[in-house]
Amino acid sequence: MSGLVTPMALRVAVTLGLPDRLREEPATARELAPELGVDPLALDLLLAHLTTLGVTERTDAGHRTTPFGAHLCVNADNNLNNALDQNSAAGRADLAFVDLLHSVRTGEPAYPVRYGQGFWEDLTEQPRLRATFDAQMTDRQRDWVPQVVRNYDWARFGTLVDVGGGHGSLLAAILKANPGMRGHLVDLEETAAGARAVLALYELGDRVEVTAGSFFDPLPAGDACLLFDVLHDWDDQDALRILGRCADACDRVLVVESLGGSTEFDLVMLVHFGGRDRGLHDFERLASVHGLRLESVHRLTDGRSLLEFTR
Ligand SMILES: C[S@@+](CC[C@H](N)C(=O)[O-])C[C@H]1O[C@@H](n2cnc3c(N)ncnc32)[C@H](O)[C@@H]1O
What's this model's pTM, rounded to 2 decimal places? Predict the structure, then answer.
């Protein structure tokens, strides 16, 4: 519980692409070092610790990734590689945990202490980071989509505005299953461009629209606004502003969140964004500021609930 060595060794291994590289073909540290642009002696020390962990093993031809280590490969289908890679948005953001003490002292995110500006500003300036974040969001939705579509009566709404909707695979699935509905996705410029490309693949014609913009500005009108995993990224003040924009645009606001339960996730939200998971009463309190009343609660997936608010 106390060591930082193993978590960092795994992150560096993934960032250097070692699990994939050594799965294809065994190699010695001396062979690998020039290929990766690293120091051969230091790489040998890293590989020795990875061997202790069972991530790699020694063979006559050099180090090789074990079946256990293969869980860290790009195509392992568990999102671990993306989460640990220091060049991905999530892996990079987790390094801010070094300044958790700052967050605990101040209640503010540690991310800007390390990187000089906030997470979202970084993503705007570095399209590669944004691409890894958007991909991570789409990947995690993949398993949930069928349950989300099935476990709520979306067809009651003529137009659903998906606020901070990412690349739109969830909105697309809802619209596919409910041919009478229209959808309007709002997200920041780069992500909105990605959403246009993804949504085009679903052949929804003019039933879907994408607007590049901020949810701190006025939102397009609709019958309901959906905020899926958005509010936990923000502190109370910003969450209130987002809810206010939704309440101005739609009579109904659908908040999907996990409603707490993961102490680890709460600290991640704090360090990355200054946010946190909130409970039912926290949301009722925030929403009431904008005249929104909680009408019903629906269990969407094992980890997510939908709170339906009416103005
Ligand atoms: C945690 S992700 C959730 C994405 C999507 N709702 C989902 O569940 O997959 C938060 C989303 O909010 C978007 N976002 C962040 N700041 C925003 C802003 N000021 N205006 C609009 N969208 C924003 C991000 O680009 C991202 O797509």
Answer: 0.93
pLDDT in tens, 268-300: 999 999 999 999 999 999 999 999 999 999 999
Q: What is the 297 CA–ligand 1 centroid distance (Å)? A: 22
Residues with CB under 6 A from ligand 1: 120, 137, 141, 164-166, 186-188, 191, 214-216, 228-230, 233
Alpha-carbon torsion 167, 168, 170, 173, what sign?
A: negative
| Domains of the chain by residue range | 5-76, 84-136, 139-310
Nearest atom of ligand 1 to the alpha carbon of 140: 9
Identify the CATH number of the domain defined by range 84-136.
Answer: 1.10.287.1350
Same fold, 5-76 and 84-136: no
pLDDT tens digits for range 137-187: 998 888 899 999 999 999 999 999 999 999 999 999 999 999 999 999 999
User: Which tokens hold the place of 199?
Assistant: 């949504």
* Interacting residues of 204 by C-beta distance below 8 A, sequence separation 6+: 172, 175, 176, 183
Token reading at 5: 């060595």
**Fold (topology level) of 139-310:** Rossmann fold (3.40.50)
- Are the C-beta atoms of residues 277 and 234 closer than 8 Å to each other? no
Task: Select from 287, 279, 210, 276 the least CA-distant residue to 241.
Answer: 287
For the domain covering 5-76, report its CATH number: 1.10.10.10
Ligand 1 probe mutation, 185, 187, 304, most atoms within 8 A of CB: 187
DSSP class per residue in 157-176: -SEEEEET-TT-HHHHHHHH
Q: Token match 């195509």: residue?
A: 75
Which residues are tagged catalytic?
232
